[in-house]
Specification:
The chain is an alpha/beta fold and 358 residues long. It has one domain: 3-Layer(aba) Sandwich (Rossmann fold). The strands form four sheets. The protein has a ten-stranded mixed beta sheet with strand order 3-4-6-5-9-10-11-16-15-14, with helices on both faces. A two-stranded antiparallel sheet has the order 1-2. The longest helix has 20 residues. The radius of gyration is 21 Å and the shape is globular. It starts with a strand and ends with a helix. InterPro entries: AB_hydrolase_fold, FaeB/C/D, PLipase/COase/thioEstase. It is found in: Secreted. This is Putative polyhydroxybutyrate depolymerase. Keywords: Carbohydrate metabolism, Hydrolase, Polysaccharide degradation, Secreted, Signal, Xylan degradation.
């Protein structure tokens, strides 16, 4: 009986906007919920009116088939949903923490354009000369989405720092429009320099209000946002005192033509990342650097001895690489088998970022 649609290849191409989790729920919970979702999916397909948008969307997913492969495809999707529920969503479909009076949406004007950012003041009630932590989300993620999975507010940063979630410019790529950071091939309506000017304006405004300490500004981010964090360290080492890229997309324009100055840098990346390969490659018609290339590039500007291989130490599934003789810390944490994700644990991306900054 033909009632299960085969997921389209296009859905696979959009995996870049999804945040994966390494943990997989097992046992009765997984089997029970998987079965319930499968039954619900079958029933929903049976009762969708043929002329509805839902029916049109289903028909666009490809021809109907009753093969075992279709069942496996659907099971894979359902298992992914179950995994997200079991692991707290990991940010792919997360819900932003509840709104409170410490969170505000601010507008900033730079070069005649007004852009926005979510600004979260610390829980402690401190209001002056505070460190600033920028969090940049992945491609297709707006500020609220980035906040929903970042977890920074649950670290000590939430008690003592201003956490800023800037809003990316929406760019149209291959007929679809999504938020994106400059330097990536899909960031058609912005550039790295335009985004850096925006970040400078945010810091300048918060500092002029007496809230921010210009000497304690940091940046972290996921995927396209991870590339932007290191791109900020590359283009404006005078502005930031530390950057962290998590599953970063280091497209050549993002981390090239750098200012020759040092900035503490950490990269967290998984060897199983199928979206941005650890060893480099190309995507969306543009090349991106390998993790080793990015590490060496930043190490050279950080006055490390790049004539020798970095030291390596392994604990569990994480191998930490450090160049020697550096003016400032220059670290890679290689996550064995890790995917394209903002890691919730082993390593905890939010906690690792804050530990590196403080």
């Amino acid at each position: 009986m033909n009632f299960l649609p085969r997921p389209s290849q296009r859905a696979g191409e959009r995996a870049e906007q999804q945040i994966n989790q390494s943990g997989k729920p097992r046992g009765i919970f997984r089997r029970g919920l998987t079965g319930a979702l499968a039954a619900a999916a079958a029933l929903s397909l049976s009762f969708v009116p043929q002329g509805s948008p839902e029916a049109q969307a289903q028909s666009s997913m490809g021809s109907l088939s009753s093969s075992a492969g279709d069942l496996e495809d659907l099971a894979g999707i359902i298992n992914g949903i179950v995994g997200g529920l079991q692991n707290g969503g990991g940010g792919g479909a997360g819900t932003a923490p509840s709104t409170d009076t410490r969170l505000s949406e601010r507008s900033f004007t730079v070069n005649g354009k007004t852009r926005k950012a979510l600004v979260k003041m610390p829980k402690s009630g401190l209001r002056s000369n505070l460190p600033v932590v920028f969090m940049f989300g992945g491609w297709q993620h707006d500020a609220n989405k980035a906040r929903s999975y970042a977890g920074l507010e649950n670290t000590a940063a939430g008690d003592s720092a201003i956490i800023v979630y800037p809003e990316p410019v929406r760019s149209t790529f291959k007929g679809e429009t999504y938020p994106a950071w400059g330097g990536a091939p899909y960031a058609t309506n912005t550039t790295r320099s335009a985004d850096v000017a925006f970040f400078r304006q945010i810091v300048s405004t918060l500092a002029s209000e007496g809230k921010a300490d210009r000497n304690r500004v940091y940046a972290t981010g996921l995927s396209n946002g991870g590339g932007m964090a290191l791109g900020l360290g590359c283009a404006a080492p005078d502005l930031v005192k530390g950057v962290v890229g998590v599953s970063g997309a280091y497209y050549t324009p993002t981390v090239s033509n750098c200012v020759n100055a040092s900035v503490p840098t950490m990269i967290i990346h998984g060897t199983g990342d199928a979206i941005v390969n650890y060893n480099g490659g190309s995507r969306h018609g543009a090349s991106y650097l390998s993790i080793n290339q990015v590490h060496r590039q930043f190490a050279a500007r950080n006055k490390c001895d790049v004539s020798k291989a970095p030291s390596a130490s392994t604990k569990g599934n994480i191998t930490t690489y450090r160049y020697q003789g550096c003016a400032v810390s220059t670290v890679v944490k290689k996550v064995e088998g890790g995917g394209h994700t903002w890691y919730p644990s082993n390593p905890d991306a939010a906690q690792e970022s804050w530990n590196f900054f403080k």
